[in-house]
Amino acid sequence: MRLLGFRCFVAVALLLGLLLNVPETCNGGKTSAFVRKDEKATDMPLDSDVFKVPSGYNAPQQVHITQGDLVGKAVIVSWVTQDETGSSVVRYWSEKSKEKKVAKGKYTMYRYFNYTSGFIHHCTIRDLEFNTKYYYEVGIGFTTRQFWFITPPEVGPDVPYTFGLIGDLGQSFDSNRTLTHYEMNPRKGQTVLFVGDLSYADNYPNHDNVRWDTWGRFTERSTAYQPWIWTAGNHEIDFAPEIGEKVPFKPYTHRYHVPYRASESTKPFWYSIKRASVHIIVLASYSAYGKYTPQYKWLEAELPKVNRTETPWLIVLLHSPWYNSYNYHYMEGESMRVMYEPWFVQYKVDVVFAGHVHAYERSERVSNVAYNIVNGQCTPVKDQSAPVYITIGDGGNLEGLATNMTEPQPAYSAFREASFGHAIFDVKNRTHAHYSWHRNQDEYSVEADSMWFFNRFWHPVDDSTSYPSK
Ligand SMILES: *[C@@H]1O[C@H](CO)[C@@H](O)[C@H](O)[C@H]1NC(C)=O
Ligand SMILES: *[C@@H]1O[C@H](CO)[C@@H](O)[C@H](O)[C@H]1NC(C)=O
Ligand SMILES: *[C@@H]1O[C@H](CO)[C@@H](O)[C@H](O)[C@H]1NC(C)=O
Ligand SMILES: *[C@@H]1O[C@H](CO)[C@@H](O)[C@H](O)[C@H]1NC(C)=O
Ligand SMILES: *[C@@H]1O[C@H](CO)[C@@H](O)[C@H](O)[C@H]1NC(C)=O
Ligand SMILES: [Fe+2]
């Protein structure tokens, strides 16, 4: 019955001429025929400009920041010193007061096969004022370097805020193009939601962790100035018992800290934050998620806490997509979908961003929750309580693009294209958010795909035809 409704909808939309360029077969949405580069991406060599070690004795490098508490009044500052321990202190001051303050952090280090890390410092600065520019300095005692960030506005229902979306970045020439396009995008992302797979160091012999360091230096030009919200992907696991590395996520957890305790999580792989008008839930595709597991119990308790009066927008980040019509990582997200999709519909998640598949895809609002083993109802149906699923794993890592798609395009898939790029989710108020996808081949301001999101709690009107087809 509901499926019939969806077909009718497609037919009506076609009649109205709303969906241009739909293939004659009318199986699904649009598969873009854009001619993209179809060859392996190449990693930038070790002596590339983007990997340059900052000058000065024991100069801090790989500086990155992320949100440090539940609401955005704290920031975790992280950096690495190579020559000696140095100081874990951050000196910071607001543009308004200029009174300098200090916060003391801690350092850690780790060994991986025959690699020894530098001194990895993490320092949380707390009690910051909202909506304020802060300058900060690290490397005190030896070579100091100065950076800045802007805190988000206070959490509230109509606070506009702009998020960038990047996934599966790696450190190839294409990765550098993606980051440049994000930086140059006139829509100006204020925080990056990163959907997993950072450095791809594990593609090197013995997971050469030098490539974790180069990645940290490459991304510093963005990560030191605006928070990146981290999601763990499969390339963060670094589980290699054949070389004696039996602790999963060792490099990742030493290098990238997240404020998981603030949301009562027990592990850094799943957690939540509130930022401006958005409640963001980060899930772990590579930690246990079955019934009775810590992640399951956490999510079960977390979803009822989401207060749409305070944070109208509910965004979920995870690495392995649930709705993916490429012939790569096909159905890898299926078991997690089976566990959690009914909750996403019940709690009206606005959008789910995933990576993993090195391409771009956006779904209709669909759910597939009717199946109960005996009834045979296992087809995704249009569902206005369901999120839009977006795969944004097209950051440009060395593994290259996923170009092989399932044919015909399934009905739930609204748009798919195998090009490198990034996206922007631009929240305007409690009812409207403008979303756009930007491919690297285009000029900085070009939107290769876009959609006006209508909030599922405040304005649950069908938004599938609100975007112009491109
Ligand atoms: C680690 O081992 C590899 C392979 O044996 C070798 O090529 C590399 O130089 C070693 N690195 C260090 C830091 O010892
Ligand atoms: C990376 O991009 C930046 C900014 O566009 C540019 O200055 C730099 O030369 C690029 N580096 C490489 C190795 O492509
Ligand atoms: C939800 O947030 C609003 C606005 O901040 C607040 O007035 C209300 O008490 C909250 N509801 C619950 C159940 O906490
Ligand atoms: C695309 O993937 C399908 C399914 O895995 C496979 O049968 C087919 O050979 C692939 N096509 C190409 C051109 O690689
Ligand atoms: C919310 O933002 C949209 C898009 O900018 C705008 O059309 C709408 O009027 C806004 N709503 C309110 C209540 O301001
Ligand atoms: Fe992945």
UniProtKB/TrEMBL annotation:
The keyword rRNA processing belongs to this UniProt entry's keyword annotation: no
Stretches assigned to the Purple acid phosphatase N-terminal domain: 60-149
Catalytic activity: a phosphate monoester + H2O = an alcohol + phosphate
Keywords: Glycoprotein, Hydrolase, Iron, Metal-binding, Signal, Zinc
GO MF term list: acid phosphatase activity; transition metal ion binding
Required cofactor(s): Zn(2+); Fe cation
DNA-binding is among the record's keywords: no
Domain Calcineurin-like phosphoesterase, chain residue ranges per copy: 162-360
Enzyme Commission numbers on file: 3.1.3.2
Domain annotation Purple acid phosphatase C-terminal: ranges: 386-445
Signal peptide interval: 1-28
Family designation: Belongs to the metallophosphoesterase superfamily. Purple acid phosphatase family.
PANTHER family hit by this protein: ACID PHOSPHATASE RELATED (PTHR22953), PURPLE ACID PHOSPHATASE 10 (PTHR22953:SF86)
UniProt-recorded name of the protein: Purple acid phosphatase
Species assigned in the record: Acacia crassicarpa
